[in-house]
Amino acid sequence: MTYSERATKFTNKVARELFEIVERKKTNLALALDVTTKQEFLNITDSVGPYICCLKTHIDILVDFDDELIEQLKRLQAKHSFLIFEDRKFADIGNTVKHQYSQGIYKISEWADIIDAHSLPGDGIVSGLKEVGLPLGRGLLLLAEMSSKGSLATGSYTDATVEMAQRHKDFVIGFIAGRKLLMNDDFVTMTPGVGLDVTKDGLGQQYRTPRDVILESGSDIIIVGRGIYGSGKDVIAEARRYRDVGWNAYEERIGK
Ligand code: 5IU
Question: Is 136 helix (H, G, I), strand (E, B) or coil?
Answer without folding.
Answer: coil
